[in-house]
Amino acid sequence: TVRVVDLDPQCNATTWLGATPEAVDNDVLSVLMMVASIEEATTITASGIHLVPATKELDSVGPYFLKKPGAHGILRKTLASAPDVDFNLLDCPGDFDHLTISALVACTEVLAAVMTGAMELEALMRIENYITQQVELLNPTARLNHILCGRVELGQVIDQQVLAALRETYPDQTMRTIIPKSVRVSESYSAEEPVVRWAPSSSAARAYRDAAQELVERTS
Q1: Least packed by Cβ within 10 Å: which of 71, 78, 147, 189?
Q2: What is the DSSP secondary-structure string of 46-69?
Q3: Cα 46 from Cα 197, distance rounded (Å)
């Protein structure tokens, strides 16, 4: 069983999994504000994923959330008391804010999903520095454990170069599975279904299944 906790105000994971943020009674904000438990905020999606949906209101919650004593430990505590699942996947926003800190404090492994662009190495270094400078005191075990490359076009020289650089710089963290660029991924988002359900025989779906299996092996 997989539980996805969507901490991104853009609600992409929530939408992709077929949930409507405005249609739920409780969401991840309810959990962070301690008015609902993880179990009360969980929606079971059509694909069987346990989803704690995001809300666009996460964007404005910072000043109120941070006033709570031990705010950055709330998510960790609520997950610890939630029903057991095989994996908790905490989907973070793209910037380093209180939501990202909460996820990093709660997590046991950090997975960075990156595209094979020229700036990815710098971005990964910023993630490492951020963990060291901002999170280590709250979660001494937090570190960058896994790097998954997505939207890869192996026919492009820049993609080949970035992949080679990642594997040289992060030999232990870079996963052997790569996710190829595929229009099926964009289509699946519009259909509000995971690509493994929308286009199960596509190259992207096969790659995501391989990545999931590899992640299980890496964390077991």
Answers
A1: 189
A2: TTS-EEE---GGGGG-HHHHTTST
A3: 10
CB 95 within 8 Å of CB 57: no
CA end-to-end span of the chain: 15
Average pLDDT over residues 147-165: 95
- For 52, 74, 90, 95, the CA distances from 65, given in Å and listed in that order, are 18, 10, 18, 17
Domains of the chain: 1-107 (3.40.50.300)
Distances 107 to 42, 77, 138, 220 between C-alpha atoms, Å: 18, 11, 11, 15
Element (H, E) at 151: strand 144-152
Distance CA 54, CA 219 (A): 26
- Tell me the C-alpha distance between 85 and 105, whole Å: 19
pLDDT at residue 117, as a whole number: 85
* Closest by CA position to 134, among listed 94, 87, 102, 88: 102
Whether the per-residue pLDDT at 64 is higher than 80: the answer is no
Q: What is the mean pLDDT of the chain?
A: 93
Q: How far apart are CA 146 and CA 72, in angstroms?
A: 23
Beta carbons of 181 and 151 less than 8 angstroms apart: yes
Separation of alpha carbons 22 and 29, rounded Å: 12
